[in-house]
Design brief:
The protein is built from 4 helices and 6 strands, in the order E-H-E-E-H-E-E-E-H-H. The chain is of the alpha+beta class and 149 residues long. It has a single domain, classed as Hypothetical upf0131 protein ytfp (Roll).
């Protein structure tokens, strides 16, 4: 099993059950030094992370199989749309309540894509995911306002 960092639609439990059968929520935490933003192109606008020194983004951590990782690469449009990297991340383990630190995979959209509004369905799916992981939605709502106001 590997660990995967989710900060958008892949926080949604129902969607992940369909996309990555066998993936298990492992916990929740935050990534320092980033903010959420909607970016994309004609194929659609989706969440990504942008650097922000004083920022913090709530995240969910999944335990995933190699097969799940293949599905995630396809879903994320890797390597053209999103690139992947690994980060050391601290999070609260959902089964023990203990703090733990693991190396985890994350997908971040390539910087060449500009801002734009996501579909309402995508945004609502992200909101549901944030809530299911018990994450604060303020940063998500702010990112949405930036592209819809």
């Amino acid at each position: 099993m590997s660990f995967y960092i989710a900060y958008g639609s892949n926080l949604n439990l129902e969607q992940m059950a369909l996309r990555c059968p066998g993936a298990k929520p492992a916990g929740a935490g935050a990534l320092s030094g980033y903010r959420l933003a909607f970016r994309g192109a004609a194929r659609g606008y989706y969440l990504t992370l942008l650097p922000k020194p004083e920022g913090s983004v709530p995240i969910g951590i999944w335990e995933v199989t190699p097969e799940n990782l293949e599905k995630l690469e396809e879903y994320e449009g890797y390597p053209e749309f999103y690139y992947k990297t690994e980060l050391d991340v601290s999070f609260k383990d959902s089964s023990t309540g203990e703090s733990r630190r693991e190396r985890a995979l994350i997908y971040i959209m390539r910087e060449s894509y500009g801002p734009g509004a996501p579909t309402e369905e995508y945004y609502q799916g992200c909101l549901e995911g944030f809530r299911s992981f018990g994450l604060d939605t303020a940063g998500l709502e702010e990112a949405y306002r930036e592209v819809t106001d």
